[in-house]
Amino acid sequence: MNTRFKDANLRLSDFTNTILVVCPKCRKKATIRQSEKEGAILSCFECHYTSNKCISDEDRTDSITTDYWFGQELWLQAAFKNEVFWANNYEHLDYMKQYISSGLRERHKRAFFTLVEKLPGFIKSAKNRERLLKLIGKLETK
Ligand SMILES: [Zn+2]
């Protein structure tokens, strides 16, 4: 498989407009959106729970498997060996899928590290490709 991946020079911050998390009330899929006026808003379509928080750095949690503001578990995550594979939303998942499934990975000159360059080694490793794609397939239908 030699599909070519062109680094679109996207950063993780390009995939934070919507973050999918586990609803704190019903444990189903909830979304967090950011708005300048209201801060971060968590809302669940299942049980209609909503909550909002003003964005301040002190409130932010540092874990990679929870969101910044509410500390809720990310919806799209799965254990992979001793690591955790996670994505903020389906666009983010799809972008990593394109990267993982490609045989040739192109880079461009730019002034910062892009999302794919910062990915942990287990995601970049060609030997994990098949198992990762299977795992992504499962997350895509979650
Ligand atoms: Zn809910």
Give the bound compounds. Answer: zinc ion
| Overall form | globular
Total beta strands: 8
Strand order of the largest sheet: 2-3-4-5
By helix and strand content, what is the structural category? alpha+beta
> How confident is the prediction overall: mean pLDDT?
89
Low-confidence stretches: none
Task: Characterize the main sheet.
Answer: 4 strands, antiparallel
User: Gyration radius, to the nearest Å?
Assistant: 16 Å
Q: Number of DSSP helices? A: 3
Helical content stands at 10-25%
Helix and strand pattern? EEEEEEEHEHH
Classify the beta-strand content into a percent band.
25-35%
Number of domains: 1
- The end-to-end distance, rounded to whole angstroms, is 26 Å
Any descriptors?
142 residues, alpha+beta, two-stranded parallel ribbon, 8 strands, globular, binds zinc ion
Written account of the structure:
With 142 residues, the protein is of the alpha+beta class. The chain has one domain (4-140). The protein has three helices and eight strands, in the order βββββββαβαα. The longest helix has 12 residues, at 90-101. It is globular, with a radius of gyration of 16 Å. The model has no long low-confidence stretch (mean pLDDT 89). The structure holds zinc ion. Zinc ion is lined by residues 23, 25-26, 28, 30, 44, 46-47, 49. Zinc ion (ZN) binds at residues 23, 25-26, 28, 30, 44, 46-47, 49.
